[in-house]
Structures are given as C-alpha cells and as structure tokens.
Design brief:
By secondary structure, the chain is α/β, with parallel strands linked by helices. Helix 9 runs antiparallel to helix 10. It is built from 11 helices and 10 strands. Its EC number is 5.4.99.30. Belongs to the RGP family. It comes from Hevea brasiliensis (Para rubber tree). This is UDP-arabinopyranose mutase. Probable UDP-L-arabinose mutase involved in the biosynthesis of cell wall non-cellulosic polysaccharides.
C-alpha cells in the first residue's frame, strides 16, 4: 500500500485556482478504481484536492500508477488486498472495476464518493463547471422522501417545497443513504443499446433531484455515486465480477438492488438526479456484450427476485439484512445458475471481512 500527501503551489490556470470551501473535508473519502495513470485528477483538482483519496489499482500489481502531485492518497493493489484480507480476498473481484468496494471497506470515513477515471468535470447550461462532489454532499445531508412522492421533486432544495396535499406527518423525511448521480455525453447503456445507438449522446441537463420511492428498484451506476458509509456501507458490495466469473458489468447494479431492498426495510432513502459528470469514453460494445450476455438473460429472474424479497423484523442492522439476503440468493437464484451459489457465499465472506476491518460497526 502506498500513502502520499504532497503540497504544491496552487496552479495558475483559471479552473485550478477556483476557490472552493470543502464540505465534510475530514469525513469523506474519494474511492477511484483504475488500471491507468490518474491524469484525469488534474481537471478535478479544484474540487478533490482537499479530500483524501483511496485508489484501488486493478490488474497487474507490478504496474506503477502515477498520481498528480498535491493529492493526499492511499493506493492499494492486488497484493495489498491479498495481504490485508488473506483468504477472504476471494470476495474482491479481479480485473473489474468492482474491486472499488475494497476501498469502501478500508475507509474510516463516514461518507464515500466514488468516480471512474474516464469521468470529467461537466458544465451546467450556463457553462459553469459542476462541483459534483459538493452536490452529492448536499443530497446526502438533506432528507429523502421514499414514502410519498413530491411532484416538485426534492422539497429540501432551495426554491422548492412540499406541494399541496403532501402529508405533514411525512415532511420530516428520512436519512439519505445514497446519492446517485448522472452523466452527460456517453450514456450508461447496455451493449445491445450501444450497438443500436452507437452515436447517441446525452446532452440533456435536467436540474432535478428526486427520491426513489419505496418498493421501486433502479439500475445503480457506480461511476458517479456517493453514500453514507455508516448507514449503508456493508451493503455496497459489488459482487463477483471480472476474471474467472461468467458475468461482468452488473457489479454496481447488484449492489444497487441489494442496497435498495435494505434501505426500504430500514427506512432509509436513495436520491437520484444531480450531479452530472461528463462521461468521456464509450466502452467497446462487443467486449461489453461478452461480459453482459448472461446477465441480460439472468436479470429477468434477478429483478423479480429482488422485487419479491422481504426481510424479517429482527434484521435491524445492514449486516443482518445482507446475510439474510445472501441466504435468499442461495435458496432462490442458485436455481438460475451455480454462479449465484458462489456469489451468495462471497456475500457472507464480504460481511465477515467488513466486520473484521470495522469492528465498531459490527458491534453496533
């Protein structure tokens, strides 16, 4: 594991010199999975430099990853993961961005923001650079409204409120566990849609944040995501994907489905909408199809499973909820494919590893 903290003189270009007052500076880690040098951080310097980074290097651990000067970071590669987790390292995916969840596990902060290394700073309709991290923090620090839909979207944003007919008994809202951001330019499409619409780009900036209603699933994307690690961290397991596995590109969605079921059970909220990032690079649709093709069939069984999943009342912690979900995965989804039997075991291993590295959370 590498740890660095270097201070340099402020950059002279206009964007890098922008003065930003950092929110939650000492309470949030930024987790980045990567296989390449992190030059993209230069663009994010005005927004990210005050925060601590956890970089999870995927692939060949002997390769050197360079990080621009001035960032405070830890870098973990596969050798570090094996050393820290021992036999339990088997639950962390290899050669897949799902390895990012190791960063969630080793963090000691209350909040996590995770972003992909092909995501750049977007601009709002006025041309102003968007501080995605700041908007995520605002989402997480304001309540959610999963039990009754507000037609003016997030009632806690400036200039909005609860509309006529909204029950006063529900206006206090609930804690927000997850903030799910979106993307301009390259949409987060599956391989078949990429093949049908190779030139499609998302240019619509929708100035809205809304709570996903209780009982409604959604396809969570991990490239622009923030969450309250203390509230929901143990559920943010990105599954077994990549090398040696029959499926890929379902890591974040698996975590999202598990997280949503658990949030609904525990009375927590999930928001989606702002902030936007600029997704710069379209992945190869043919490579994606090889990774996704089993999942495209399996999701027709997976989604009804999660829609019908219920958790008993004695599941009062995220860990207990997640272990219960793993039992249901083994019982019901292993009939779809033996992979789910292995995934259910990995879910248990993940919780065991999480509790070993976070003993105070386990006792809570």
């Amino acid at each position: 594991m590498l740890c660095f903290s270097k201070m340099v003189e402020p950059a002279t270009d206009t964007h890098a010199a922008t003065k930003v007052v950092p929110l939650l500076k000492d309470e949030l880690d930024i987790v980045i999975p990567t296989i390449r040098n992190l030059d993209f951080l230069e663009m994010w310097r005005p927004f990210f430099q005050p925060y601590h980074l956890i970089i999870v290097q995927d692939g060949d651990p002997s390769k050197t990853i360079t990080v621009p000067d001035g960032f405070d970071y830890e870098l973990y590669n596969r050798n570090d993961i094996n050393r820290i987790l021992g036999p339990k390292a088997s639950c962390i995916s290899f050669k897949d961005s799902a390895c990012r969840c190791f960063g969630y596990m080793v963090s000691k902060k209350k909040y996590i923001f995770t972003i992909d290394d092909d995501c750049f700073v977007a601009k709002d309709p006025s041309g102003k650079p968007i501080n995605a991290l700041e908007q995520h923090i605002k989402n997480l620090l304001s309540p959610s409204t999963p039990f009754f839909f507000n037609t003016l979207y997030d009632p806690y944003r400036e200039g909005a409120d609860f509309v006529r007919g909204y029950p006063f008994s529900l206006r206090e809202g609930v804690h927000t566990a997850v903030s799910h951001g979106l993307w301009l330019n390259i949409p987060d499409y599956d391989a078949p849609t990429q093949l049908v619409k190779p030139l499609e780009r998302n240019t619509r900036y929708v100035d809205a944040v809304l709570t996903i209603p209780k009982g409604t699933l959604f396809p969570m994307c991990g490239m622009n995501l923030a969450f309250d690690r203390e509230l929901i961290g143990p559920a943010m397991y990105f599954g077994l994907m990549g090398d040696g596995q029959p499926i890929g590109r379902y890591d974040d969605m698996w975590a999202g489905w598990c997280t949503k079921v658990i949030c609904d059970h525990l009375g927590l909220g999930i928001k989606t909408g702002l902030p936007y990032i600029y997704h710069s690079k379209a992945s190869n649709p043919f490579v994606n199809l090889r990774k996704e093709y089993k999942g495209i069939f399996w999701q027709e069984e997976i989604i009804p499973f999660f829609q019908a999943a219920t958790l008993p009342k004695d599941c009062t912690t995220v860990q207990k909820c997640y272990i219960e979900l793993s039992k249901q995965v083994k019982e019901k989804l292993s009939k779809v494919d033996p992979y789910f039997d292995k995934l259910a075991d990995a879910m248990v291993t993940w919780i065991e590893a999480w509790d070993e590295l976070n003993p105070s959370g386990a006792s809570a």
